[in-house]
Amino acid sequence: MRRTGIDLSSTRCILADAEAPAAERRTGERRGFRVHRYASLSSVESSQALTAELKALLERKEFPRRAWINLWDVRSSHQYLLLPSAAADELESKARRHAASILGMNDGDLTVGTVIGSTRAEAGQHPKTEVSFFAAGTHEIRQRLRPFIEAGFTIEGVTTPCGALWSQAKLRKLTLPGEVHAHVALGPAQSALGIFSNGALLYARDINWGYGAHATGATASHRQDLARRLSTELRHSFLYLKQYWEDDVSQVLLSGDMPEIRSLTAPMIELLNIEVETLDTLEGIDASRLPEGFAWQAATFRLATSIAADPPPINLLPSEAKSKGTPQPPWWILAGGAAAAIALAAFLYGRSNVASQVAAPSRPLQSQPPEVVREAPIVTEPPTAYRVEAPTTQPRSRPPQVVPRKPAAAPGPPEVTEPDPVVRSILVSGDRRLALMNGRIVSVGDPIGTAVVRAIEPGAVVIATVDGKIRRIELARPANRVARR
User: Fold this and answer.
1) How far apart are alpha carbons 258 and 260 in whole angstroms?
2) Which of 40, 158, 184, 345 is most buried, most CB within 10 Å of its CB?
3) Could you please report the per-residue DSSP string of 264-305?
4) Is the pTM of this model over 0.85?
5) Residues 167, 170, 173, 177: is their CA dihedral positive or negative?
6) Are 373 and 342 in contact (CB under 8 A)?
7) Using one digit for the tens of pLDDT, what is the confidence trace for 148-166?
8) Environment class of 370 (CB within 10 Å of its CB; exposed 0-12, middle 13-18, buried 19+)
9) Which of 128, 203, 198 is nearest to 378 (CA)?
10) Angstrom distance (rounded) from CA 399 to CA 197
11) For residue 375, what are the contacts with CB-CB under 8 A and spacing of at least 6?
12) What is the band of 477 on the pLDDT scale with cuts at 50, 70, 90?
């Protein structure tokens, strides 16, 4: 099925007309996915100018009207949770309340989607169900979609860069089953990281910086600085992942519109001591029939072509939303009627509404995102209304690929007492002080729940609570680990 994949950031709008890999009639083997057309638009600062350019493309019938859109720069969260087993609507309701608390928003203002995985029963414990949720502000998504709706596109789905990386990972053939690969998309101002195995998402997070601050003049020193900073981010993520999954990352794959992106591979291989590859080749793409000039820009168009050929199992497309108490008119009426078709397409497509990746920090609405990390899987004691549990000492299976479910309307979060934060690890190196608390990496000045980190010591973290009290949280002793098989 042909569709348009759209990769929208604050600096450019990338479009790719692509379709899923075709199977050979004789052998049944699947070829690479097919790319028919591509385009890059730079008039993104003006909504009217972007709408006009998009409308002209459709009027010339250069791109299919059916589209999936990847949105950079939206405030979002992604988390993996281990919840007490319950009905699907109850699990989705808990995920929605948790997402609202993380983003500091009302649950009615969010687009939330869930991927419900397997249920695990361990000796002496109640069964637990693996749940991944993605969440983002509904209003912000609608605003970003308006030019495409007004231009005449039929939006089938919306994702964020981590979800687009999920599509990219599903399309890539593994050399050996069970390999764990890290996919990185580098943008001018923001980047994204996702770690996958056998098409399943293990970990994902947004990175609030891009190559722009490091690639000025494309000098060797700037590239080396970028390689060092990216390698540091990856090492932190690998360390975090290793605490909860038994496998090691064996390869890093880079994509994005960074000029001469391949120049990062050598310094990063040296810094990480694992294989690093750039997706600037035609691997996974049907090279027999390509539009002219595409081969030289494959890395730039990877995310757009991936979501067009194989959309991710998450969908951030907002449906009709109502605020608490007062019903609001359907948003497709506010958008001029075009989004009615979008809502219908979303239901026919059978995907749930979703948001951006495996974890985001719990922070007050007015706080700024921390410098080091925006997301990481949560492993802390939750409010008494439900429990979000850390992995046990037994290795667990990866969440399987499942069809997301349509999220149910959720009640507001109950009034609960905030649990004590848990300090899992501390890094003190020179002027750099980091701590792993409640499943996310924090530094001095970062919010942790309703508290604020005041100091990070070698064996403890000092926080200031919302009532003005100063508390010292000792480093938790590590749990017993199971020997690696």
Assistant:
1) 6
2) 158
3) GHHHHHHHH-SEEEES-S-TTB-TTS--TTGGGGTTTTHHHH
4) no
5) positive
6) no
7) 999 999 999 999 999 999 9
8) buried
9) 203
10) 10
11) 77, 78, 79, 204, 205, 206, 356, 357, 358, 359, 360, 361, 440
12) low
Q: What are the tokens at 16? A: 């790719």
> Measured between alpha carbons, how far is 70 from 163 in angstroms, rounded to an integer?
8
Residue range 47-69, pLDDT digits in tens: 899 999 999 999 999 999 999 99
Q: What element of type H or E holds 168?
A: helix 161-171
Q: What is the pLDDT of residue 41?
A: 92
Lowest mean pLDDT among 42-56, 194-208, 361-375, 382-396: 361-375
Tokens of 256: 């994005």
Q: In the block, which residue shows the tokens 């990352």?
A: 249
Distance CA 347, CA 314 (A): 13
What would the pLDDT profile of 254-277 be if each residue is shown by its tens digit? 999 888 898 899 999 999 999 999
Which structure tokens are listed for 222?
Answer: 């700037």
Q: For 386-415, write each residue's pLDDT tens digit.
A: 333 334 334 444 444 443 434 444 443 344
Instruction: For residues 196 and 247, give the distance between their C-alpha atoms in angstroms, rounded to a whole number.
Output: 11
Concatenated DSSP letters of 112-147: EEEEEEEEE--TTS--EEEEEEEEEEHHHHHHHHHH
Lowest mean pLDDT among 74-78, 106-110, 358-362, 397-401: 358-362
| Domains in the chain with CATH codes | 420-485 (2.30.30.830)
Low-confidence winner among 74-78, 188-192, 403-407 (lowest mean pLDDT): 403-407
**H or E element in which residue 232 lies:** helix 220-242
CA proximity to 140, closest of 178, 91, 185, 103: 103
How far is the C-alpha of 39 from the C-alpha of 56, rounded, in Å?
12
Q: Could you tell me the pLDDT band of residue 143, with boundaries at 50, 70 and 90?
A: very high
Between the alpha carbon of residue 276 and those of residues 157, 183, 185, 451, the distances in Å are 31, 10, 13, 39
- In this structure, are residues 475 and 459 in contact, taking their beta carbons and an 8 Å threshold? yes
For residue 470, what are the β-bridge partners? 464
Q: Which residues contact 135 (CB under 8 A, 6 or more apart)?
A: 76, 77, 78, 95, 96, 99, 100, 102, 103, 110, 111, 112, 113, 354, 355, 356
What SS3 state is found at 57?
helix
Confirm if 256 and 211 have CB atoms less than 8 A apart: yes
* Distance from C-alpha of 244 to C-alpha of 242, rounded to nearest angstrom: 5
* % of the chain surpassing 90 pLDDT: 31
